[in-house]
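Field notebook, page 416. I keep forgetting to write these up properly, so this time I am using the form the group agreed on. The chain and the ligand, zinc ion, are recorded exactly as supplied. Prediction of the bound pose follows.
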Amino acid sequence: MKFFFKPQMIYLTMFTTSLFVGCETETFESESSLSQNGNFEIEEAYPDQTGKLHSILLDGEEVMVENFGDNNVSVIGDMLFYTDNSDSTKSVGRTGGRWPNNIVYYEIQSGMPNQARIRNAIGHWEANTALRFVKRTNQSAYVFFQKGGGCSSFVGRTGRKQTINLADGCSTGSTIHEIGHAIGLYHEQSRKDRDRFIKVLFGNIQSGKEHNFQTYVQRGRDGTENTSTLDFGSIMMYSPKSFSNNGQPTITKVDGSSYSTQRNGLSSADITGINKMYPGNTNLAAGKPSFQSSTYNNDTNRFGPSKTVDRNTNNFSHTNKQNNAWWEVDLGFNADIKDVQIWNRADCCQNRLTDFDIKVYDRRGGRQIKSIRINEEARRGKSYDVNARGRVVRIQLRDRNFLHMAEVRVNGTRVR
Ligand SMILES: [Zn+2]
């Protein structure tokens, strides 16, 4: 069973948790426990089980699937499909099954264990793409996160309630992966041009699991690729020994060599492709020069200002406790800034970012163009309207405190 935490990972999680208890006295976070899923290999809906194999007609094509009791739902690895298939369009692949207006409605099962992984995965998607995840009210098409026996998701928007099933062992990275399915992504190795990049070694694949290695074209779906090459670093890429029956690789590079995979987050090629599927507000702040009034314990490696524009909602910047502590980013050009999104440090201390200003300047140390007072607790991913033209965005506390933020996204358009 591939998806459970290794024992040392459990230890690490407990260790960091115990550090967080003392948060009020400013403890370190050695490294996010969320990035400790590097050993993750593959998501499956029903780990270590093989369902009843049968073929169904999916958009007029005969496709092998597995069935695990619910005749209405067919399973390919960790991807679920409604067998009646009545609501899907011809071209789900990477071109259909989209969520209109970039909004994914969702609900979380009450009592769902470890909801932080869902919040963090959603935060990761929102910090890196134009997609927004909105709690469902009365929408009939939405994602329902629920406890399951494995990790699995439907592919693309189905037009009705669609589950993302998460066993306790499904990490934040796997949750990011399953959301990838829900917004329309197939596995990276199922690209229609994959044979230019990889070899699939069918002789090493467990009997009955071969259908997991079909391209999505072979599954009766069409679509265009949004990137020009297969990305081994994609969060949607299978590991080399997925579904192996003998410990030997089931996938190699086309030259026969191996490769490594990751479940830390969306790769830059993932983001490129998703931006084509869901174009929208551009995050102007990512990777731009950033500054802050001081750095906690002078530890710029851990708490430097750039942690706030690294597109990782777990790392965070951190000032010392001081009057009117500030952080700012220099976009390097004038922009029409629509809104600013702020992710607080996840594990504690949100209330430290309660009474603050979002300021826009024409340059660093220059003229202030706008200042917006936010007198409420900033929550993770919360968006604040700015609607101003400027080049530098500053977040500044109004009182004496620490300032730490996991991510700031400046959404807008560059002025040409
Ligand atoms: Zn998957």
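OBSERVATIONS:
- The first strand starts at residue 52 and ends at 58.
- Confidence is low (pLDDT under 50) at residues 1-40, 86-94.
FOLLOW-UP: compare against the apo run.
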